[in-house]
Design brief:
This protein is 44% helix and 13% strand. It is built from twelve helices and eight strands. The protein has an eight-stranded parallel β-barrel, surrounded by six helices. Helix 5 packs parallel to helix 6 and helix 7 runs parallel beside helix 9.
């Protein structure tokens, strides 16, 4: 039983999860075997060489894809040639201006430039064969109130939805430490208010651990989850060494309850992309990251 987001919301997503959506537990009788496709962020590749060399390295260590930033200064043909030669997919891109040119900024010119960056990212995602643009929709701070960030960002994103529809590329909002959309219930509401299949959620597992439980977010967001970012977070490192040190834990060695996360993904029927977003390196380090992803995701 595969449900789209409108059906899920209309029937009551939490109730459906409790009742048991079809699982993705490997080997379970009558159930689909889960295989999450694994990618990483292009900036994690530390290798002297061409774009093609870097793509090839990722393919050789077992990644299925790689995500690029956009807007970027890469040569489009070089990207497409590297993709074809390596066999890697480019499942999506990350908006590279969403922190600097936020869509909730009080200056209309800044918002317009941020919107233009999002439009470029949508076009690049389509060109590369991707299906999503990762977007931080807004930032709340002393100068930008919560309600202003909410209203302004939705207004700007709605202007881009016709292009997203035309390109068949979705905008996936990520949960980051931007003081905005701080609960999964609010995140679901924010997505649903667009009344568009071209928006959804880019679920960053590690980012949630500091103030919540990723498995709860996954179940509540349900089919709104379009992609996953994979990283770890340690509350002990946070408490002993400082907030940002929490990300120093290796995947599988922090406070993320990976069995619970995987069960939640199975419960909502997720079988898409999972992208590492951690400190990178060369061949040995990238191989380790891919193996750690295999270990925690069980696929």
């Amino acid at each position: 039983m595969q449900l789209d987001r409108r059906q899920f919301v209309g029937l009551g997503g939490a109730a459906l999860v409790a009742a048991g959506l079809p699982g993705r537990v490997s080997g379970a009788p009558g159930r689909t075997v889960r295989r999450l496709r694994k990618s990483c962020k292009f900036g994690m590749v530390e290798l002297e060489g061409s774009l093609a060399d870097k793509f090839q390295l990722l393919a050789e260590v077992g990644f299925d894809g790689v995500e690029l930033d956009s807007p970027n200064d890469l040569d489009d043909q070089e990207v497409l040639d590297a993709k074809a030669a390596s066999g890697l997919e480019i499942p999506g891109v990350v908006d590279s201006v969403h922190w600097r040119l936020t869509l909730g900024d009080p200056d209309p010119e800044v918002r317009a430039r941020g919107r233009a960056g999002l439009e470029t990212a949508l076009r690049d995602a389509k060109l590369y064969g991707g299906t999503t643009v990762l977007l931080v929709p807004a930032v709340v701070n002393a100068e930008i109130s919560y309600d202003q960030a909410y209203t302004r960002s939705q207004e700007e994103i709605r202007k881009v939805l016709p292009l997203a529809d035309e390109l068949d590329v979705s905008i996936a909002f990520e949960n980051v430490w931007n003081h905005f959309l701080l609960s999964p219930l609010e995140a679901a509401r924010y997505v649903d208010e667009f009344e568009s299949q071209r928006v959804g959620w880019y679920m960053d597992v590690g980012n949630i651990v500091n103030y919540g439980w990723p498995e709860q977010w996954i179940r509540i967001l349900g089919p709104r989850v379009l992609k996953l970012d994979i990283k770890e977070f340690s509350r002990k490192l946070r408490d002993d060494q400082g907030l940002w040190k929490g990300f120093g834990a290796e995947i599988g060695e922090g406070d993320c309850n990976w069995p619970a996360v995987v069960q939640a993904l199975d419960d909502i029927g997720y079988d898409g992309w999972a992208s590492a977003e951690v400190a990178g390196g060369g061949r040995e380090r990238l191989t380790e990251i891919r193996q750690r992803m295999d270990d925690v995701l069980g696929s």
